[in-house]
Q: What sequence folds into this?
């Protein structure tokens, strides 16, 4: 018996674009009351229909949607802005581009202490070019600098002004196209868009918006450019200066180009939640007489911090810790004893073998290993592919590392990582 059934109702929520009119409303007493009301509600996507239906009884549709979007962005922003997020305005893409809080604080303090620029004790003048919602500009202003934020998007500029006022921070923001030139200043911080209109990452620096080459027209004493974390260093070699790779607790967050007198070479920076900062540059290492020729796995497997890898400093660090490489193209090395450094994570190597699923399965069964953590570097096999094939049973646990030794696939059987081993 044929017939027709009503399709299930599906609520399709289009991406909400915050407008200047939305900001006027959200800044009003009525808008503030609505945001305060939403702050105590369940803002999950599953509740969208219920929330908008309730809000439509008291507010026009556009105001209800804008307020719901802003309330959700404030929740999402807590990770980057803490308690301040509940006072601030955002757009979805600008929040995504905003720097990590530890990186913002580190950079602001670093800029405020550049000897050549602060020697005369005058107030440091900083331009935040493509300032977005003002995250970095506000961090600069908190150090006492005279800060001007510029952005081509009037909505972002208005949001940055709101954020400065809401947090009681003295910073100026203006709508401008930085490609037309910049006012005089001691420092320019340039944060071009690194995603296209569809949200995809842009990897070519000349496809940034604006392109990196715009800095050729700037003659300021110091120009600092925020780049993609995975930048191809060859793309920026012609710009001179220093390329810095910054990680936070081992997670690579940014690469930065420092272009000015005295800034050269490569630098890796590690920041941690206890406000500890570490730096490594090639000339700061003191290599020992270690034999860096490739050697079979032994002792401890060492994984350098991601900033060290991106800065190309793995072999220098391996030499400094008397290490040996497994493969010329793999960013692992081994040491006889466990090194103690915040830059390194270490796994005790219990055994290793050429990679073969059947032999590995038999080996693990003999040891009664029922649980494994799988890491990989230089191997096409994923943990999701390997673990089901092992058919594990038992109470023991191990860490398996899929990598290469002299170009050939191997698996290292290691003891599980402990807090001490993590550096």
A:
């Amino acid at each position: 018996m044929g017939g027709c059934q009503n399709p299930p109702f599906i609520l399709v929520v289009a991406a909400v674009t915050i407008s200047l009119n939305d900001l006027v409303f959200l800044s009003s007493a009525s808008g503030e009351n609505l945001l305060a009301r939403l702050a105590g509600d369940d803002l999950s996507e599953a509740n969208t229909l219920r929330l908008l239906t309730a809000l439509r009884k008291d507010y026009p549709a556009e105001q209800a949607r804008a307020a719901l979007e802003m309330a959700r962005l404030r929740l999402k922003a807590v990770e980057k802005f803490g308690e301040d997020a509940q006072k601030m305005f955002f757009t979805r893409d600008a929040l995504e581009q905003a720097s990590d809080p530890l990186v913002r604080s580190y950079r602001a303090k670093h800029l405020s202490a550049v000897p050549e620029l602060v020697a005369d004790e005058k107030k440091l003048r900083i331009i935040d070019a493509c300032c977005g919602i003002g995250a970095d500009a506000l961090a600069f202003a908190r150090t006492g600098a005279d800060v001007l934020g510029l952005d081509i998007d009037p909505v972002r500029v208005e949001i940055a002004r709101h954020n400065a006022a809401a947090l009681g921070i003295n910073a100026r923001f203006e709508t401008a196209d930085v490609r037309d030139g910049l006012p005089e200043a001691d420092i320019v911080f340039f944060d071009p868009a690194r995603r296209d209109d569809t949200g995809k990452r842009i990897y070519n620096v000349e496809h940034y918006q604006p392109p990196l080459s715009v800095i050729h027209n700037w003659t300021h004493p110091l120009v600092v450019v925020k780049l993609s974390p995975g930048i191809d260093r060859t793309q920026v070699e012609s710009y001179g200066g220093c390329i810095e790779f910054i990680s936070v607790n081992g997670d690579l967050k940014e690469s930065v180009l420092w272009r000015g007198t005295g800034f050269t070479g490569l630098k890796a920076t590690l920041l941690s939640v206890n406000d500890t900062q570490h730096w490594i540059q090639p000339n700061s290492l003191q290599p020992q007489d270690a034999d860096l020729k490739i050697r079979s796995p032994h002792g401890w497997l060492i994984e350098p911090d991601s900033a060290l890898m991106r800065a190309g400093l793995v072999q220098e660090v391996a030499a400094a810790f008397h290490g040996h490489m497994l493969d010329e193209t793999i960013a692992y090395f081994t040491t006889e004893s466990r090194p103690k450094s915040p830059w390194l994570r270490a796994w005790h190597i219990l055994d290793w073998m050429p990679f073969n699923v059947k032999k590995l399965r038999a080996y693990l069964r003999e040891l009664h290993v029922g649980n494994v953590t799988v890491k990989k570097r230089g191997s096409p096999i994923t943990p999701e592919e390997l673990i089901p094939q092992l058919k594990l049973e038992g109470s023991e646990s191990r860490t398996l590392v899929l990598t290469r030794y002299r170009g050939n696939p191997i698996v290292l059987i290691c003891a599980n990582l402990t807090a001490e081993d993590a550096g």
In short: The two ends are 69 Å apart (CA to CA).
